[in-house]
Design goal:
alpha+beta; six-stranded mixed beta sheet; nine-stranded mixed beta sheet; 12 helices; D-Amino Acid Oxidase, Chain A, domain 2; FAD/NAD(P)-binding domain
Length: about 425
């Protein structure tokens, strides 16, 4: 894309007529995209209504994402609160006939200091807002997008909620799983729901986590504890609806006791637990990830359960590909080029997360056996475990699992209640 944006700024306001890039959405994906676009030389507008940084959840930024954040100057602004994930541990906590042995994966096995780093979303958001406020290439418009205007030239303009008109070279839609921009482009979405709810908290404990992220596999879904500083971990506990209702009815002390029992006291005494959120699990994937001069990033194009730290990390790969496409694709071909660049990665990640989650829920013995054997193979076969670790943290360096996933899915059977968004 030819960079023709002109900056007419007084303080924080960039040209609102024809910036190179407009980002819609003020979540972490949108904020990262805005700063990264400006760092790559694009005049940029971030269109997002003001909102306080109030998300107490955390994100595990895997190694590939950390590399991108370093390249764009973001990592230096947030690394002082980053907590290393040096070991990934998977524990089969089911009571089924076929159970896998505990599997520990160490970052040092593939030459990494850490698989990634865990950070609080609220802190990352605050630091990103600070970076954006100090960047003269970024104009911030505290408004929503009302819709798109088809310019008839293979591109679209944006109409804001207050009636302003922006005609960017490209548009990055980071406006979430209910994306207005995706709907305006008439891009269909395949959506499905899981019979599970994720309960989220940040917990204190008496024993050191030793930089180990632990995922307990249970009959109702994974229970994951990720290091968050000394004596603290972030918790994502996936249960069925009845289990969620029971746990939410407990006092903080009662919930701590329940958690301590469930994880076999491996973190010692658990401090009283205050839940910070509940999230019914669902998944969605768009039929196209770009159209005309618009590219969908983050949950505007794909969404799935909080398993394996894939969500925002996949969104960061979207951002990298979007900026590369913006710099190289011909006008009118941006959307198609971006879709071609992202489809394989998005579909394989979505399928792998879906398959792992459904394999935990399945009562079908062959599926239980296949899952247990798979974990055993990963923990026992050196070349395979190293390949899996590289692919999980540095996508593109390991195997693309699409074909094996399809074979195992054929054993499980039809896997999604499909609908339209």
């Amino acid at each position: 894309m030819k960079r023709t944006g002109k900056t007419r700024s007084t303080g924080q306001t960039a040209s609102i007529e024809r910036p190179d890039v407009a980002i819609i959405g003020g979540g972490l994906a949108g904020l990262i995209a805005a700063h990264a676009a400006a760092q790559n030389g694009f005049t940029t507008i971030l269109l997002a209504p003001p909102s306080p940084a109030s998300d107490s959840r955390t994100t595990a930024f895997l190694s590939g994402s950390v590399a991108f954040l370093r390249e764009t100057g973001i990592w230096d602004a947030i690394s002082d609160r980053a907590h290393a994930l040096r070991t990934m541990r998977i524990v089969d906590g089911t009571k089924r006939l076929f159970r896998a042995p505990q599997a520990d994966f160490h970052a040092s096995e593939i030459g990494l200091e850490a698989f990634g780093y865990n950070l609080e979303n609220r802190f990352v958001s605050e630091r990103l807002h600070g970076l954006i406020a100090g960047n003269g290439k970024i104009g911030v418009i505290g408004d929503t997008a009302r819709g798109l205007i088809d310019l008839g030239t293979g591109s679209h303009a944006i109409e804001t909620g207050s009636g302003r008109r922006i005609e960017p070279g490209i548009i990055l839609a980071a406006d979430g799983r209910h994306s207005l921009i995706r709907q305006a482009l008439a891009i269909e979405t395949r959506a499905w729901a899981y019979p599970q709810i994720a309960l989220v908290a940040n917990v204190g404990h008496s024993l050191d986590h030793h930089d180990v992220s632990t995922e307990f596999h249970t009959e109702n879904g994974p229970l994951t504890l990720v290091p968050l500083g000394s004596g603290r971990s972030s918790l994502v506990w996936v249960v069925d609806a009845a289990g969620a209702e029971r746990l939410e009815a407990l006092s903080p002390a009662g919930l701590a006791e329940e958690l301590e029992t469930r994880i076999q006291s491996f973190l010692g005494k658990i401090a009283p637990v205050e839940l910070i959120g509940r999230f019914p699990l669902s998944g969605a994937v768009a039929s196209a990830f770009g159209k005309a001069n618009v590219m969908l990033i983050g949950e505007a194009g794909h969404a799935f359960p909080p398993i394996g730290a894939q969500g925002l990390n996949l969104g960061i790969r979207d951002i990298r590909a979007a900026l590369e496409t913006a710099a190289s694709a011909k006008p009118g071909e941006v959307g198609r080029a971006y879709h071609a660049a992202r489809a394989a990665d998005i579909h394989s990640r979505t399928a792998s997360v879906d398959l792992l989650n459904r394999s935990l829920l399945s009562g079908f013995l062959p599926v239980q056996a296949a899952r247990s054997f798979g974990l055993y193979a990963l923990s026992s076969l050196g070349p395979l475990r190293r390949l899996a670790m590289r692919e999980g943290t540095l996508p593109g360096e390991g195997l693309r699992a699409a074909d094996p996933l399809k074979k195992l899915q054929s054993i499980i059977g039809p896997n999604a209640a499909r609908g339209r968004q």
